[in-house]
Amino acid sequence: MVKSLEGFTASLLLKLIEFQPDPRANEKRAQRQEDPEKWIGPLHPRPRFDDWEYHELLKDGVRPLTDAKPYETARVLIDAVASMIRLRVYSEPDGGDERSDISEIWCRRVNAATRSFLSSEEDLVHTLTYACERVYEMSADSILSLNEALRNQPWTVFRRIREHLYARYPNDQTKPWIRELIFAHRDYAEWEHRFEFQQMIRVACEHFGTTLLSEEERIPIFESILSGPSQSHYREWLGEQYTDELFGQRRRFFHFKQLKPFEKLLFGKYAEYFGKLEAEQKKALNDDDYSPISESRGGTVSHRSPKTKEELEVLSDIDLLELINEWQEAKRSTDDWLVEITISALAREFGSIFESSIVNDDTRLAFWTQHLRAIERPVYVRAIVEAGQARVKNKQFEKLKVWLYVCEWILSHADAAPTDADRVSDESRENPDWHGSRRAVADFLETCVQKEVSVPLSTRAGIGAMLDELCTAFDWRLDTDRPVLLSRDDQLTEAINNTRTRALEVLLDFGYWVRRESGDAKASVPEVSQILDKRVKGSALRLTLPEHAILGAQFGRIWDLDNDWAINHKRVLFPKEEFRPWLEAFGNFLRYVRPFRPLFDLLRDDFEFALENLDRFVSSGSPHPHITDTLGEHLFTYYLWDVYPLSGDISLLAVFYSKTENDKARWGSLFDHVGRSLKNTGANLANDLKKRIVAFFDWRLAQGEPSELKEFTFWLEAPCLEPEWRLAAFSKILDMTKIDFALSMHIDTLVEMLNEHTPLVLECFAKLTAKISSDQPFYIEREKAIAILEAGFQSKDPAARENAARAKEQLLRAGRYDLLEVGQ
Asked: Is the pLDDT of residue 682 over 80?
């Protein structure tokens, strides 16, 4: 194509590089006409090739042509770019005036890429610019014609290309064109110069000097710059954050930036003013600072303290107290907009100093404990507790009394429900919010009673008293139905993120901590029962859904700590007369408490109630989409433990299958669950359990539901069941199901059992291959197929040889000709 230019035709080239309309173009244009003010988004025309292929076409096909025929190729590319832009927008420009094509968004530079990903639109513009540059360098006679061709196009990108060319090639020919663009510009007072425009001005001023513009021609331009920017527009943009001081800063920087390209032509008062502005700047401007659409910078916003840890450490305790009480000028860093200077960051540094320095100095520690009430913002008291939590987590208990004292001080502040007008915050002095600090106390106590930490048992009374307060007191989020999370569905997640519900869980940890530290694994812990009793019966506050969820999920631990309390309060925690609270409690019990015979006996009526109300699980808005499956798994386990028979009126498992007759996907889920459990059991399984498993399988096989039986995959891999039984069962299932399951997994298992059970393996393999066809995707590794077939052909069992021949024939019909030589 490059070597022979005789075959070059503009129409053919244009055909190759032109864009095709967006398939939804007409629909979007109609929407735009119906509502011109509505943002519809750009149209998205595409070339005939994907982006990479299009890039290769332009690089290896069009650019070499450009080197040989620059002007001719440039004219073709101008038409292609103009056509592409017309397909991107909704209408043609009016009256021949220049029309914005928002090219600075999709093509930040007209001559080179600024990002790793290059779109076809951007690539096409770059190729056009390259062609224009080649005209300037190789075909001087065509420059005038090229300039006219670019001028005649009404889109912004063509003016940007002209500005780029004039900046790259300043000479006597381009000088009047540069002057024309400078005089025609109308936005000196409002908008910062675009990248190519300022570059053109700067280069021209440096190249031509004062001959570019006379002083009389410069004055209107400079005065126009100094008349801007618009104060009213700036005030409207900033809203309540507007100040005259901010506008003054903005105005002076705007003047500096607009005058900078004209620096070589400044004179008199303009040069003097510019010198003052330049002295104010912290860094010099470069061309990239003039990109109206800057490259996006992503990242996580970080918070920074107004003073570093080192600066805070040299302050006296009185000065530090004054600082944390008085400082509240939260703002964004002027050096990095991704950094915010905040009270929370100052609190973090304060907590760090408290942990590393203050707590090790008895004098300083005494000051802060004596002045605890002088700390006016709760966020700093919370920081002290969090510092203590870090110490305790590292088993540093020497200042434990201090941390517990701070926790008691926090809990002396009751939780209160704010109104929308209060604007309370733990960072506020006027409207302090202690909710977050109370949660920090719960987290601290949780750390104290963890098995890995286990603070001394001498703190039992203090920790118990604080848990009493946290587990029974008003919690404004719980008691006013103001969820922490946006989703109201998952009540257990909501419970984990609320203070009182989390404290209830810590209370149970407290019980096990007492048992561990006392050395008695069955010791009575009356505090647990008393606090629970106070919460569920002795309070005017109703149990909330998150509380039902957490108590249901922890019911096994409650029963273990106090059997009698669990038995006596079961109806309160699982209230069948209120379906949604019951569902939260029982649903989370099923999810998080493993099957346990004593608990089944206690909750049998709840299992029966669940079976009676299976149809209500979905309609109730339950967040537990798999609760029916989990119920089935529990019921199967109790059948396996011989709590009830496989069938009959007293079998809850039989009732489960009857109730799910119209939702057989639940049958498949339970069958799969049993198979997975068997696979993970190991090789040893009691004979009585095996018998019940085999009985269960025979029962399900008799039902003959293919969607259930196809979930046999993990049954086949279960080492606790005899291989002969597994293969025979698989053969029966293959007679009743389609091949819409994991074929390769079955093949792997068959190969493992091949040597010891060749006839049965070949029987299953023949049935498997009978179900595949050339139009159904499947995969059997050649080596594994050969291994099975060869074993069959070499077997002394005639049935095995017959099944090998049948399987081979079926594989050949399915297109597996690579197995043609097997067995010959």
From this structure: yes
- Predicted TM-score (pTM) of the model is 0.66
| Residue 545 phi, psi (nearest 5) | -60, -45
The mean pLDDT of 520-528, rounded to a whole number, is: 95
CA distance 684 to 719: 8
What secondary structure does DSSP assign to 329-371, as a single string?
--EE-SS-TTEEE-HHHHHHHHHHHHHHTGGG-HHHHHHHHHT
Residue 64, number of CB atoms within 10 A of its CB: 15
CB atoms within 10 A of CB 129: 24
446-451 long-range contacts, CB within 8 A, separation 24+: 446/502, 446/505, 446/506, 446/509, 447/389, 447/392, 447/393, 448/392, 448/513, 449/506, 449/509, 449/510, 449/512, 449/513, 450/509, 450/513, 451/512, 451/513, 451/516
- The answer to whether residue 691 scores a pLDDT higher than 60 is yes
Amino acid identity at 647: S
**Could you tell me which residues are beta bridge partners of residue 155?**
99
User: Torsions phi, psi of 425, nearest 5?
Assistant: -160, 150
For residue range 624-656, what is the model confidence (pLDDT) as tens digits? 668 899 999 999 999 999 999 999 889 999 999
The answer to whether the CB of 500 falls within 8 A of the CB of 551 is no
Tell me the per-residue pLDDT of 292-331, one tens digit each, with 9 for 90 and over: 654 444 455 577 888 889 999 999 999 999 999 999 876 6
Q: How many CB atoms lie within 10 A of CB 729?
A: 20
Residue 601 in contact with residue 613, Cβ under 8 Å? no
Which residue type occupies 270? Y
Tokens standing for residue 480: 């006013």
Of residues 553, 552, 527, 515, the one with CA closest to residue 466: 527
User: How confident is the model over 781-789, as a mean pLDDT?
Assistant: 91
Q: What is the pLDDT of residues 460-503, one digit of tens each?
A: 999 999 999 999 999 998 998 888 765 556 899 899 999 999 99
> Cis ω on the peptide bond leading into residue 229 (within 30° of 0)?
yes
- Give CA–CA dist 269/276, Å, rounded: 11
Residues 6+ apart with CB under 8 A from 591: 553, 624, 627, 630
Contact between 411 and 441 under an 8 Å Cβ cutoff? The reply is yes
Half-sphere CA count of 338, side-chain side, radius 13 A: 7
d(CA 589, CA 599): 10
DSSP secondary structure string, 87-144? HHSSSPPSTT--B---HHHH-S-SSS-SSS---HHHHHHHHHHHHHHHHHHH-GGGHH
Assess contact for 482 and 420: CB atoms under 8 A: no
Confidence (pLDDT) at 1:
32
The CA R_g of the chain, rounded to the nearest whole Å, is: 39
559: number of Cβ within 10 Å: 20
Sheet containing 302-304, strands listed edge to edge, beginning at the edge strand earlier in sequence: 302-304, 339-341, 331-332
For 674, counting Cβ atoms within 10 Å of its Cβ (0-12 exposed, 13-18 middle, 19+ buried), the class is buried
Distance (Å, whole) CA 193 – CA 191? 6
Region 563-580: what's the mean pLDDT?
A: 96
Backbone phi, psi, residue 300, to 5°: -85, 135
For strand 331-332 and strand 339-341, is the pairing parallel, antiparallel, or unpaired? antiparallel
